[in-house]
Specification:
By secondary structure, the protein is α/β, with parallel strands linked by helices. The protein folds into four domains: 208 residues, FAD/NAD(P)-binding domain; 185 residues, FAD/NAD(P)-binding domain (3-Layer(bba) Sandwich); 138 residues, no CATH class; 64 residues, BFD-like [2Fe-2S]-binding domain (Arc Repressor Mutant, subunit A, Orthogonal Bundle). Helices cover 23% and strands 24% of the residues. It is built from 18 helices and 37 strands. It starts with 18 loop residues before the first strand and ends with a helix. 47% of the residues are buried.
């Protein structure tokens, strides 16, 4: 029996949860308490969940966030989104083939309806991630009554998926602390305030013209909330990408992948390929390696990755091929991904014939950027409701920036409500802009001439907001400009008559794992180098032979491990010690973990790009839409009427940006495009819920 669950992780605690049986197509399988249906299926090696009603195409997971319907299955006869529905003992899961059959209803039956809950509140916060939590805490500190709604079973948003330590400022946004721990800190702090109501597993559906907001409370009941102020902190959704095979099971976003691996502790893939070199893609690759997944490659269409260099360097050191100025041509496979084909691009970002390479993989991760989930904010402004946006719903940036922007919005709202009479401190806005800033200048690697004693080597060469190394050095030998934490750290060999003692705290706490420690004290010819390592301690032992690499991942030497240790407060980072020749000691930046990856012999067979799927829900191709554009259509609503593109369960969240891209490819200026009306509902909801009907209970009674 296949079992793809993680039972050990270098960072995450793995609880021994009770297991029970469930059934998929009458096959008895094992589930773990608290798993979603999707994670239970992946854990049992099942990647194809259903088949599209239009053409029978296999369907798998896509967003893992409840915003599409790619993972729809029948659970005990009910069509449900498997990524959102918890598995239950004895549950019978079936793939959907064709359109789900609606249960028969006897018109003579009577139905019971509950009254719709209606409440008024000073502030409604949509989203319990870093921005929403920080804003709620700030408002609670000013005695403002708030309601915070989030569609997940716990607070934290994407923080609960982040096992790495955060960048930014130690003083302002918990830099040096892991995202999973920041989520717990913020939630614990918020729950101290009785004036804050929290509705979990509750989805905001729409903002209406009477300035009320519809909420699907607990996934079952409808509620109407009338706030004085609306704060939208609903985060971002991942952008998609059009290429042949983009609809195969095994092609999905980094958020879905991190949900399966870091939240559900499921290993959804053996061989992963990543498209996109921003922080999201780079971090997802690192998380994959920590879970024992081989990362066979990463492509970025630009000449350099857009994410932090320290994230790129971590992957390169560990043995991941990073190919810039490359793009994906196709995902290949019959019923799910079996390989991926890439090619180099020219200065116009067009694939160069003859440069195609194909790599065996079972998953293609799309990490090509994010779009704000700001529909609620825009509707609120349209209807005259006082509204703010925070975090990614306002501007795409790092989670550390979202924490601080939520804090600012909270104080601004408190001021609007009259409970705070001062001004938001000017330095708050300055800090916010620094935290939101993109990577700055990259400098060439520089080494101290010193070859005695013990000292850190800082392999951080790019200007990014980050200062934990300066905060943890007990002798203050590492400094980062307190006025601008984007400046590179500076190491002083001596200060106030004190020098480095080799305490290793800077090595352990650097979020980018970009500091090593070189110690000449015992052997000047073969100094000891201490390297940070965030993988299971058991995989490397004293006496093992390892490959030490430089910052670009080039192997410098093979050597033996002399020590594997932890220090107090190590925050789950292991220290590996090796002895190497003095001439390479300062260049050592890390250890190689996975062997060299090579392409497979299969050659790329060019396919018509018009075959690529634009609308995943309704299976509408690029060719169908491009034909209408060439015929002169400029109204997306007309295209929707003819092709059904945008009429599926996801509410056109994924395909609308891709339709706009098709217009651009055909040379149609944005000013000529007529967008379709936005749907009033964020997700699909049974009609009975709006009338107070518990649809699940009624259907269960009918089955009895």
């Amino acid at each position: 029996m296949t079992d793809n669950r993680l039972y050990k992780h270098p960072i995450l605690p793995v609880e021994d949860k009770p297991q029970f049986n469930f059934y998929f197509q009458d096959q008895e399988l094992k589930a773990r308490e608290g798993e979603t249906i999707a994670s239970a299926l992946f854990a049992n090696g099942i990647r194809i969940f259903s088949y599209h009603h239009k053409d029978g195409a296999p369907q798998g997971i896509f967003c893992a966030n409840g915003q599409c319907a790619q993972c729809l299955v029948l659970a005990d006869g009910f069509p449900v989104k498997s990524c959102m529905e918890l598995i239950k003992a004895g549950m019978k899961i079936e793939p959907i083939t064709g359109l789900p059959k609606l249960p028969e209803v006897n018109p003579e039956d009577s139905f019971s309806f509950e009254s719709i809950e209606e409440i008024e509140v000073s502030v409604l916060i949509i989203g319990g991630g870093p921005a929403g939590l920080s804003a709620a805490i700030e408002l609670a500190n000013h005695e403002v009554d708030c309601l915070l709604v989030d569609d997940k079973h716990r607070l934290g948003g994407k923080l609960v998926l982040q096992t790495h330590r955060f960048f930014g400022s130690v003083e302002a946004v918990y830099a040096g602390t892991r995202g999973i721990d920041i989520a717990t800190k913020l939630e614990n702090e918020l729950r101290k305030f009785p004036k804050v109501q929290i509705w979990l597993q509750s989805t905001a559906l729409a903002v209406f013209s009477d300035q009320r907001v519809g909420i699907l409370k607990g996934g079952q009941k409808y509620a109407l909330v009338k706030p004085k102020v609306l704060l939208v902190a609903s985060g971002a959704r991942e952008k998609s990408l059009v290429f042949p095979g983009n609809d195969l099971p095994g092609v999905y976003g980094a958020g879905a992948f991190q949900t399966l691996v870091n939240r559900d502790l499921v290993k959804p893939t053996e061989k992963l390929f990543i498209v996109g070199g921003g922080n999201v893609g780079l971090i997802a690759g690192y998380h994959a390696l920590q879970a024992g997944i081989k990362v066979v490659g990463l492509v970025e269409v630009m000449p350099e990755v857009g994410g932090y260099k320290v994230h790129k360097d971590k992957l390169a050191r560990l043995g991941v091929p990073i190919m810039t100025s490359h793009t994906v041509l196709s995902a290949n496979g019959q019923n799910s991904v079996e390989s991926v084909t890439i090619a180099r691009v020219d200065e116009h970002f067009q694939p160069v014939k003859g440069t195609e390479k194909t790599f065996a993989c079972d998953t293609v991760l799309i990490a090509v950027g994010l779009d704000p989930v700001n529909e609620f904010y825009l509707k609120a402004k349209e209807f005259g409701l006082l509204a703010y946006a925070a975090g990614d719903a306002e501007e795409i940036a790092e989670a550390s920036a979202a924490i601080f922007s939520g804090k600012i919005r909270g104080l601004e709202i408190a001021r609007d409500l009259g409970v705070y009479t001062g001004q938001v401190p000017a330095d708050w806005y300055e800090t916010s802009e620094i935290l939101k800033s993109r990577p700055g200048q990259t400098y060439p690697e520089y080494f101290l001439e010193k070859e005695k004693g013990v000292f850190p080597v800082i392999h951080c060469l790019q200007e990014i907001p980050c200062n934990p190394c300066s905060a943890v050095c007990p002798r203050k030998l590492i400094e980062v400009d307190p006025g601008d934490v984007r400046k590179l750290p500076v190491y002083f060999e001596e200060k106030d008559g004190k020098a480095c003692t080799g305490c290793e705290r800077c090595v352990v706490f650097c979020p980018g794992l970009a500091i090593t420690l070189v110690d000449f004290r015992k052997n000047s010819e073969f100094p000891q180098v201490t390297i940070p390592f965030e993988f299971p301690k058991e995989i490397i032992n004293p006496g093992d032979e390892v490959s030490v690499v430089d910052i670009e991942g080039q192997v410098l030497a093979r050597t033996k491990v002399t020590s594997v240790k932890s220090i107090k407060g190590n925050d789950r980072t292991v220290l590996i010690k090796v002895e190497v020749p003095a001439e390479i000691a300062k260049k050592v930046s890390g250890l190689r973990v996975q062997p060299e990856i090579s392409e497979i012999e299969e050659k790329y067979v060019e396919r018509m790009p018009d075959e690529a799927i634009i609308c995943r829900c309704e299976r509408v191709t690029a060719g169908e839409i491009r034909k209408l554009i060439k015929e002169g259509l400029r109204d997306i609503n007309e295209i929707k009427t003819i092709t059904r593109a945008g009429m599926g369960p996801c509410g056109a969240k994924t395909c609308t940006p891709l339709v706009h891209k098709l217009f651009r490819e055909e040379g149609v200026p944005e000013s000529q495009i007529v967008d379709q009306p936005k749907r009033p509902l964020f997700i699909e909801v049974p009609f009975g819920i709006f009338a107070g009907l518990d649809h699940r209970k009624e259907l269960e009674d009918e089955q009895k």
